[in-house]
Design the sequence.
């Protein structure tokens, strides 16, 4: 009896090993009739169309998410996404079927949106000419601008937005705005347009060997654009005009070295920036100040900010030169020596 039992156990064991051996021999890995030969699987946040190329029969294709649109053309599958307004990236799969039981999948991702704009809530522009102000912007989705009036416009590039305003011929100040938006995020920029030209009282310190208070009244007139100004001291009867620049992005007026101001006593007058004990003749040396509107409706600015290679700016001079090329080799006399001049308008045009 024991002998029969042992024989049966032996047969059972052999059968088991035989079954396992037979199973291993018969197993074959499934291979789809459809092969993906190449695939573009990443879509920018701004949207676009990517392609999947296949080899073999393609009975049908669909996406797992509604934000993907699928279009098949022979062995090419076009995968299209619109703008992703979310800061988070998103993912989906495209299912390609050779038959009911034969599928291949491709993972598709789309980057999240980025929109950063370094623009103040309000900017000031000038009325006498076409003005522009440029600000940094970071975006990977379309940015749209909507102005409140036809005298305001804007251009958006990959890394900046420039706001333009047309001259104001209405005879007064005016206000408007422009909306900068991506479709889901919006920023409104208020725009105030002023006519700051007119007669100014200018007071300063003459920073010669023996400093003294000086007065240099004159007229501020508009230049060729809304960002250009000219100050004409009364004492020179309009012959000397000091070029100034208004920067709407920082609301400041500046004077640069090497700016030609006109002829004087058969010589040429240029601005010279003073930094410490050094005179700078390079246009990169500037002195500037913020524009302000006083309580009585007038305008003022003080040129008291500047820096040149780490040295604080003291002010600016008007100097004469023997040539129309301001250098230390042809420099002559100082005709004005102004430390931190303050301009206050006393009468409009």
Sequence:
């Amino acid at each position: 009896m024991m002998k029969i039992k042992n024989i049966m156990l032996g047969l059972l064991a052999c059968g088991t090993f035989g079954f396992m051996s037979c199973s291993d021999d018969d197993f074959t890995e499934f291979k789809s009739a459809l092969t993906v030969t190449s695939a573009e699987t990443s879509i920018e946040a701004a949207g676009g169309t990517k392609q999947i190329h296949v080899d073999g029969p393609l009975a049908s294709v669909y996406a797992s998410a509604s934000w993907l649109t699928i279009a098949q053309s022979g062995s090419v599958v076009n995968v299209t996404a619109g703008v992703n307004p979310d800061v988070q990236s998103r993912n989906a799969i495209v299912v390609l079927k050779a038959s009911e039981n034969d599928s291949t999948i491709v993972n598709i991702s789309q980057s999240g949106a980025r929109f950063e704009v370094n623009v103040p809530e309000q900017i000031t522009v000038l009325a006498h000419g076409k003005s522009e102000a440029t600000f940094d912007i970071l975006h990977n989705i379309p940015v749209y601008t909507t102005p409140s009036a036809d005298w305001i416009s804007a251009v958006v590039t990959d890394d900046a937005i420039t706001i333009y305003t047309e001259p104001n011929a209405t005879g007064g100040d005016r206000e408007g705005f422009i909306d900068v938006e991506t479709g889901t995020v919006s920023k409104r920029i208020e725009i105030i347009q002023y006519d700051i030209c007119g007669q100014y009282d200018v007071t300063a310190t003459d920073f010669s060997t023996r400093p003294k208070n000086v007065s240099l009244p004159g007229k501020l007139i508009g230049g060729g654009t809304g960002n250009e100004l000219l100050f004409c001291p009364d004492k020179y009867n309009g012959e000397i005009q000091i070029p100034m620049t208004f920067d709407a992005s920082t609301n400041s007026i500046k004077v640069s070295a090497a700016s030609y101001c006109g002829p004087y006593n058969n010589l040429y007058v240029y601005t010279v920036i003073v930094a410490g004990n050094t005179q700078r003749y390079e246009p990169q040396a500037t002195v500037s100040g913020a524009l302000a509107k006083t309580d009585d409706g007038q305008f003022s600015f003080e040129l008291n900010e500047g820096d040149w290679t780490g040295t604080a700016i003291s002010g600016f001079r008007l100097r004469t030169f023997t040539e129309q090329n301001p250098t230390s080799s042809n420099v002559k006399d100082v005709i004005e020596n102004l430390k931190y001049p303050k301009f206050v308008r006393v009468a409009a045009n």
